Amino acid sequence: MRQIEGAAVLTAADMRAVEQAAFEQGDSAAAMMRRAGQACAAAIRRLSAGSEVLVLCGPGNNGGDGYVIAATLAADGHPVRVAALGTPGSDVAQQARAGWVGPVETLHDTAPAPVLVDALFGIGLSHPLDPAIAQALLVLIAAARLTIAIDLPSGVDTDSGALLGCPAPADITLALGALKPAHLLQPAASHCGAVRLLDIGVSAPDTMQVVAAPALPMPGPHSHKFNRGMVAIVRGRMAGAAELAAAAAMHAGSGYVALLGSTIPAAPHALVRRKLNDESLGDPRIGALVVGPGLGRDDDMRATLERALATDHSLVVDGDALHLVTPEQLRARGGQMILTPHAGEFDALFGSSDAGKLDRARAAAQASGATIVFKGADTVVASPDGRARLAPAASNWLSTAGSGDVLAGAIAACLAAGLDPLGAAAAGVWLHGEAARRCGPAFIADDLACALGPARAAVAGAVPPR
Questions:
Q1: Is 50 annotated as a binding residue?
Q2: Is 177 annotated as a binding residue?
Q3: pLDDT class for 348, splitting at 50, 70, 90?
Q4: Which pTM value belongs to this model?
Q5: Do β-strands 256-260 and 315-317 pair in parallel, antiparallel, or remain unpaired?
Q6: pLDDT-derived band of residue 466, with 50, 70 and 90 as boundaries?
Q7: Ranges for the YjeF C-terminal domain (predicted)?
Q8: Residue 1: what pLDDT?
Q9: Distance CA 428, CA 420 (A)
Q10: For 230-457, which CATH class?
Q11: 12-210: which CATH architecture?
């Protein structure tokens, strides 16, 4: 088992394509199932600490994995029982069933066990879980000390993270070969418990990955405030929002941060305050320009946004600015842009939809030509070229006023430091989550901005200074 940071994330179709490619290279479905089941059995044996294990096997290949798990545990002398939901439907699952020589109980009549293994559906479910099956499963989960899901808990949609009926919550989910979107997207992610990745001998592409600790530039002997990255932030109607973004950019490593639209000296004195005019907006040293935090939505602020869009700077567009622009305007503008909408801002800019968050973020990136950071209890980062990064769960205490302004500043610092938009967005999301972890409970956005410093110090500088 290994931690999931940086791991590949595959949709159900992507996973099947990876498996098919392995078969074309001479692998077999039976060998792959054997590897998956044996890897799961090794993890379950350690986690169960000698307690009896009840393996629930479904009719598909997830159930086939379950039979291999049970047979492997039994061969090692571990107490194990099997309960099934019907007979295996595929040849490879039937072969796995033949390898289990013990009795097979029925799901509805089986007795509980201290350790429950859910190998009913995995990534194969596309319709709501039958209520009778869900009820039987929930009874067994309630009686178990530990519930382990194989690949995915039964009752969640693999690609969208939606709940299919009444899902079966797991304490631990063993992901096979790669992470799936449902491991990271809400509400399914909250039903997965701790997710651990098992190697089953397949090679997964890295187009979509879990957000990981970034490699960020560290100052060297030739560094100065400007080549470390200059961030400029447009001050709007609510000055505090822009100041939070500015503080975040400073603590996230920017060498020079300017607040445009305010000239009154105030702490922190390291923040440069300049008038908002053509000269300050046109400063060629600006590595990233942030517009939108606390901006306001009146005609004057719309004109301010248009001035920012008219520059050739790399942009981070947040907050109110997302209500004052269209995807067509952004695509026509071109250049490096990162948009950071929460759900309401996303709907205002791109329209509402019942599609999954990942699909919506990718479509928005293509429509706008910008990298999208679709924020929330789960966060999806999507690039116009189709690449994506999914963030693992962060602190629920991030649901506080100003935390989005802090994220915008952190992303801008990474963008000004020279990272590409997808890398800068993912790095900012990671720093934001790590800062929240370090803050503990009941923090405010000011605390979060300050905690970006220790979070930034925690990552190694694998990128050489410019």
A1: no
A2: no
A3: very high
A4: 0.94
A5: unpaired
A6: very low
A7: 208-459
A8: 76
A9: 12
A10: alpha beta
A11: 3-Layer(aba) Sandwich (3.40)
- Give start-end residues of each CATH 3.40.50.10260 domain in the chain: 12-210
Question: CA 192 to CA 405: how far, in whole Å?
Answer: 30
175 DSSP β-pair partners: 197
Helix (H/G/I), strand (E/B), else coil: 53: strand
Mean pLDDT of the chain: 95
Per-residue pLDDT at 460 exceeds 80: no
Q: What is the pLDDT of residues 373-422, one digit of tens each?
A: 999 999 999 999 999 999 999 999 999 999 999 999 999 999 999 999 99
> Annotation-wise, does 296 bind a ligand?
no
Q: Is 61 annotated as a binding residue?
A: yes
How many Cβ atoms from other residues are within 10 Å of residue 91's Cβ? 11
Q: Does 62 appear as a known binding residue?
A: yes
What's the rounded Cα separation, in Å, for the pair 448 and 440?
10
- Ranges in the chain annotated CATH 3.40.1190.20: 230-457
Inter-residue long-range contacts of 22-31, CB under 8 Å, 24+ positions, other chains counted: 22/201, 22/202, 22/203, 27/201, 27/202, 29/61, 29/91, 29/92, 30/92, 30/95, 30/96
Torsion over CA: 246, 247, 249, 250 (sign)? positive
Q: How far apart are CA 249 and CA 118, in angstroms?
A: 45
**277 marked ligand binding residue:** no
294: left (phi over 0), alpha (psi -120 to 50) or beta: left
Transcribe 159-214 into DSSP letters.
Answer: TT--B-SS----SEEEEESSB-GGGTSTTGGGGS-EEEEE--S-PPP-SEEE----
179 assigned to a ligand binding site = no
Structure tokens at 199: 């190697």
Structure tokens that stand for 96 in this block: 């796995």
Dihedral pair phi/psi, residue 300, rounded to 5°: -60, -40
Q: Is 357 known as a binding-site position?
A: no
Beta bridge partners of 380: 374, 390
- Give kind and range of the element (H or E) at residue 256: strand 256-260
